[in-house]
Each structure stands twice: as C-alpha cells, then as structure tokens.
C-alpha cells in the first residue's frame, strides 16, 4: 500500500530544495533569469510544440545539473571543510558538468531561436 503522507512529505522536501536552490545559489539565479528570457523570446517567436519541448528540456536539464552540482559542493564542504586536492577536483568536475550542459543548451537555443530570428530578419 502506498503511504500518501510520505509521498506528500517527500514532495514538500523536494519543493523546499528547489526554493532554496533559487533563493541562495547565485548561478541558479543566473540560469533562472536566462530561462525567463528564453521563454519570453520563444513566446514572441511562436515556437512549435517540438521546439518548446526541446527548449524546456534543456532548461530543466541545466537546472537539474545545477541542483546536483550544488548538492555535491555542499556535501564536499560538510565532509571536508578545509582545502583538499581531491575535494577540489570533485567540485571542479561537478561544476564542469554544469558548464558542458549549459553550453549545449546555449547552442540548441541558438539553433532554434536563431533560425526564427533569421527568418524574421528576411
């Protein structure tokens, strides 16, 4: 039997994590601002359903990667508050993963939004 109270409690904890991510993490705020700009541009350019699906997937992936990166960094800081070369490597690789995904999202955004902007310019 499913305990719906546990499920609701889990959703509440997850929601708090999302709120904390965007409230306290500077990079998440930057990703949120850029996502708002991209969504506004997409609405203006009247993206197709498929284009929206791709754009929104990229936004979600970048936010999720930023959340994982933040969790990894917080765990590293808790486990090893001082400087340690392995902790530095872990944090660098984790943030590098976010950068890879963010760059990919920008390229996809340029392909989709750029195509519409070029069509408008003609």
Can you walk through the features of this model?
With 122 residues, this protein is an all-alpha fold. It has one domain (12-121): Helix Hairpins, CATH 1.10.287. It has 4 helices and no strands. Helix 1 (4-24) packs across helix 2 (26-45) and helix 3 (49-79) packs antiparallel against helix 4 (85-121). The longest helix has 37 residues, at 85-121. It is flat and about 55 Å long. It starts with a helix and ends with a helix. 11% of the residues are buried. The model has no long low-confidence stretch (mean pLDDT 96).
> Considering DSSP H and I runs of 4 or more, what fraction of the residues is helical?
over 70%
Number of domains: 1
Order of helices and strands: HHHH
SS-based class: mainly alpha
Cα separation of the termini = 60 Å
For the secondary structure, the number of strands is 0
CATH class: Mainly Alpha
**Main sheet, how many strands, which sense, barrel?**
none
Q: Number of helix segments? A: 4
Shape: flat
Taken as a percent bin, the fraction of beta residues is under 5%
Binding site for substrate: 66, 95
Cofactor: Mg(2+)
Keywords: ATP-binding, Kinase, Magnesium, Membrane, Metal-binding, Nucleotide-binding, Transferase, Transmembrane, Transmembrane helix
Binding site for ATP: 25, 73, 91-92
Fold topology:
Blueprint: H1 4-24, H2 26-45, H3 49-79, H4 85-121
Features:
122 residues, mainly alpha, Helix Hairpins, 4 helices, metal ion binding, ATP-binding, transferase
Short description, anyone?
GO terms for molecular function: ATP binding; kinase activity; metal ion binding. The protein is mainly alpha-helical. It has four helices and no strands.
């Amino acid at each position: 039997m499913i305990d719906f109270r546990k499920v609701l409690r889990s959703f509440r904890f997850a929601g708090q994590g999302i709120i904390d991510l965007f409230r306290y993490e500077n990079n998440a705020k930057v990703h949120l601002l850029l996502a708002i700009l991209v969504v506004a541009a997409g609405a203006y350019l009247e993206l197709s359903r498929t284009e929206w699906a791709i754009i929104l997937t990229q936004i979600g992936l970048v936010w999720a990667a930023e959340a994982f990166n933040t969790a990894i960094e917080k765990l590293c800081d808790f486990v090893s508050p001082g400087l340690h070369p392995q902790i530095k490597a872990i944090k660098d690789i984790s943030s590098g993963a976010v950068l890879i995904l963010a760059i990919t999202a920008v390229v996809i955004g340029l392909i989709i939004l750029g195509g519409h902007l070029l069509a408008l310019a003609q």
